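Lecture notes, structural biology module. Today: joint structure prediction for complexes of two components.
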Amino acid sequence: MKLIKYLSFALVLVGLATTGISHAGTLDDVRAKGHLQCGINTGLAGFAFTDDAGNWKGFDVAICEAVAAAVFGDASMVKYTNLTGKTRFEALKAGEVDMLSRNTTWTYSRDVDLKLTFVGVNYYDGQGFIVPASLGVGSATELEGASVCIQTGTTTELNLADYFRSNGMSYEPVPIETNAEARKNYLAGRCDVYTTDRSGLAATRASLDDPEAHVVLPEIISKEPLGPLVRHGDDEWGDIVRWVLNVLIIAEEKGVTSENVRALAAELQKDAELNRMFGTTDEYGAMLGLSDDWVVSVIAAVGNYGEIFETYLGVNTDIGLERGVNALWTDGGLIYAPPYR
Amino acid sequence: MDKNPHNTGIRQDLPPPKMHVGVAGWIRKNMLSSPTDVFLTVISVYILYKIVPPLANWAVLDAVFSGDVNHRNECREIAAGACWSVIVARFEQLLYGFYPVHLRWRVNLTFILLFVALIPLLYDQVRGRKYLLWFTLIYPIFAFFMLWGGLGLESVESSKFGGFLLTVLIGVTGIAVSLPLGIALSLGRQSSMPLVRLLSVCYIEFFRGVPLITLLFVASTLLNYFMPPGTYFDLLLRVIIMVILFAAAYIAEVVRGGLAAIPRGQFEAADALGLKYANCMRLIILPQALKISIPGIVNTFIGLYKDTTLVVIVGLLDPLGISGAALADSKWQGLSTELYMFIALGFFISCFAMSRYSLYLERKLDTGHKNQ
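The predicted structure, tokenised, for the full assembly:
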């Protein structure tokens, strides 16, 4: 009898788990746990890496810190789960992580079929090619018959196939797992071309002994809008992550930085939107279930979007990326956030 | 002085010809004794000449060892060879992962005591073995609390585990648990009870038929769907269990090979002595079967130990994972060779030690049935 009882209990649990009849809101779960569980890359230059002291840093990691600062007022209340290209979505859907900030491309099928919610774009990337200058190739259309190093399980793999097919060219894929592996294979001449997102190509090229001997081809063969995501079914939580990203962008637009945010928030500003963000006039934070000065915590902890970009990816880093399309819309880029109103 | 050439008295022994003794003699005898030998020697010397000087140049003569260097470009300015500074900078991470710095003494202590716990298992002539075995018995519990905390010790989460700590933890636990489990399964497979036999066979065939990577993916992704939402079953624990289950199936087959080599007469003799099944196995069959299986068992262990690197695909940061994260730091990007060589060295030391111990054990247990 006891056995049957246990079995039926287990079955009910399985049923609950698989149908995803949801538990309390993610925000409550996060508060109860006392930390945000954030899914990040296992290592990608500029986006997620460890410093010598063993702390996770990077452009994607900063988003996790920002969300932790929004929820707890403290950017250090976040724990990381390292996810590979193959385990990231399962981990998010199974509830092992509360959000994913792992240079993930927003695509139709991931959004719709995998039932994930992309809350925005924090980096507009695109797939490119790097070739040795000695190959004498000036355009990707001249790559007929080339061997190409390609990371498996990513959208880049599919884009590559599409691009070569639509241009009537053949290629020989050399499947690899990580950027470090790709770099080795590429330098050893096992592939003529290495293709990945252009941010990755820039990082790789910057680390070569002789960067001048390699060229990034002008073609951008895909759109890779990268952004943080959450699972379907908890819109309130999705809103929080979305607006954390948005306020980072608005803060840059308004010239609010990690250095001046406390001073600005201390007194009433002429700009009404700033007052709303800082919680000095209205109680907008409560609508999200957060404190009214949550934006101040976020910006004080991680800086605005531009600061994060310059710290981890910008021209003064080893990666040395220009803002390009990732400039604010006011500077001719694509980075744009709806008003905080 | 006797200069008579016809003197037939006892002559002093002359030293052997110079070409047959010393270094020259050894080279002649071992390396140049036939045209084939000469050919192979020349080829080998040529290959060594091609490999060793550049490697020595790169790894030692032209290399940077300084821990003060903080960027790969600084290394390049000093010398063109290996930049070992990355190992210096990441040494602790490679050993402990993200284990809190002020608690690392616990890992060290657990590691040192691991050898104390192993000694009575590995050598039977140790003084006070009886008492040490008691320690061995409680060691797993001790290690668990030391590593994860609890009982008044500050607790540490599994996600902080990494580097060689993770390798040794998964490897040693896998080895220690899979051996008894494997032996039990191999006996189950030989059992005369149909249900036990069927279950053992199903288990062994299933786990041998599925790649470890698949099992790791099941551990990391699928298992969550079978558990109530909100409960979090530690990923590291899931992975260790999968590694154990996987290795046990292989051990079972290795031991079955040993069992199959035991002559029928041994079983009959045990029966004739009136020994029950347990005693028959414990006193007569298993000691012989396991002795035969030693090379196969150690082979499986070494394979298991090296397979622990596969956990990187489910996001656990073993030494390879740690090096991946280090390589993503643009300061150290591109220094993968240095990191990989260091990790290879770490693995070689462990695996070589296992292999040497197995040879020692074989020699010790040799009862003279071979090499006759």
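Point to remember: The longest helix of chain B spans residues 277-307.
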